[in-house]
Design brief:
The protein is 37% helix and 15% strand. By secondary structure, the protein is of the alpha/beta class. It has 2 domains: 214 residues, Rossmann fold (3-Layer(aba) Sandwich), CATH 3.40.50; 153 residues, Rossmann fold, CATH 3.40.50. Strands 10-9-8-11-12-13 form a 6-stranded parallel beta sheet, sandwiched between helices. The chain is globular.
């Protein structure tokens, strides 16, 4: 049985990161390989003082007293993420805390995979060579599956590093349409665009690890907002209130403490574990999110979704790419858009699921081909 080592961001306190790592591991295992996730710590000292990090309006500036109010819930969430990693992820026996450490004591596998998440985005990973498999032997099979770049161009001073390391890959697939062009500009070769690993597993497979219990009895809109790429407030709060008034559904907030606390018909599940998060998506009537993985799980579960972006011209086009590829462009909102009319609250989920299944099979076929190195 051939062995695979996956490097990705696999254990930060973010539902999408831990679930995408698990998903790629599972799919590769189902294809007949022995799989490990390389236990590479992110962030580490290499990522400190990242000069490519953009500041400005990215932070939502939740009041400190609100953060303190939800401290216990966040501790429960973090404990749940740690438990999920321990139970479901197959980690390498050795842990690594720097690119140099990986290079000096490289783990041995037949195949090395750069997994998904924003591993090639300089704004988040500082051009980390570990995520471009600098430590893997020259003669080993190197693959990228759905790596995200999240920008329209690589900084000029990183171009030579990216070009040298990416040219060592036998097969490259990225997660967003814009990333395809960025890679071609660097190495002069066309690459594939594939689904995020979370979408390779259908909702039935996710239900095996989702909490079986319904977390909230009333009908609700699930709101999942992240604040590390852009500040979506107050737009998303006002939009959620509008959707609540239009539907009569309650609002359930997950993952992050709220930007403002006192909102009517609103309930908080900040402390949700990954399994509870999946259940919250599964049982929602609708999803409103600024998160790529919030969008991905909503469409995977066939839930009507509005995905909110800073701008349709933004360099981080992961959500836009997914929605366009699924024919759901009308469900994309920018923070300057008028609120959608009620007729956009639902759409042909059956057609969406058919498109998703087609893209899923295409993505699985790419992975099978790359692993066989045909």
């Amino acid at each position: 049985m051939k062995t695979i080592g996956i490097i990705t961001i696999h254990k930060i306190y973010n539902y999408g990161s831990v679930l995408q790592a698990y998903a790629l591991q599972q799919v590769c295992e189902e294809m007949g390989f022995k799989v490990e996730i390389i236990d590479y710590t992110f962030p580490n000292e290499f990522h400190a003082g990242n000069k490519y990090q953009e500041y400005g309006d990215n932070q939502s500036n939740e009041p400190k007293w609100i953060k303190l109010l939800f401290a216990k819930a966040l501790m429960r969430q973090h404990k749940g993420v740690n438990a999920f990693v321990k139970k479901y992820q197959y980690l390498s026996s050795k842990s690594y805390s720097s690119p140099d450490e990986l290079k000096e004591s490289a783990p041995a596998y037949d195949i090395y995979i750069t997994g998904s998440d924003q591993l090639w985005n300089p704004r988040f990973c500082n051009g980390d060579p570990a995520f471009m498999l600098h430590f893997a032997p020259d003669n080993a099979l190197k693959i990228s599956y759905a790596a995200s770049i999240g920008t329209n161009a690589i900084p000029a001073d990183l171009n030579s590093r990216y070009k040298e390391l990416l040219n060592r890959y036998a097969h490259i697939a990225v997660r967003e349409n814009s990333g395809k062009q960025v890679i071609k500009d660097i190495i002069g070769t066309d690459v594939d665009v594939v689904l995020d690993p979370t979408l390779l597993l259908n909702k039935d497979k996710w239900n095996h690890i989702a909490d079986p219990t319904r977390q909230f009895e009333k009908k609700y809109i699930l709101c999942y907002y992240l604040n590390y790429t852009f500040n979506s407030f107050p737009y998303v709060d006002e939009l959620a209130e509008y959707m609540q008034q239009q539907t009569g559904y309650e609002i359930v907030r997950v993952a992050r403490p709220p930007h403002k606390l006192f909102m009517s018909h609103t309930h908080y599940r900040v402390g949700a574990t990954p399994g509870e998060f999946l259940a919250l998506v599964r049982d929602a009537e609708m999803v409103l999110t600024t998160s790529f993985h919030g969008t991905a799980f909503a469409v995977n579960y066939g839930k009507p979704v509005f995905t909110v972006v800073k701008s349709r011209e933004a360099s981080d086009s992961r959500q836009i790419s997914l929605m366009v590829n699924l024919g759901l462009e009308k469900q994309i909102l920018s923070i300057t858009d008028a609120f959608p009319t009620k007729d956009r609250f639902c759409y042909d989920v059956k057609e969406e699921q058919n498109r998703l299944e087609t893209l899923r099979q295409q993505s699985l076929n790419y992975l099978k081909m790359a692993l066989k190195n045909d």
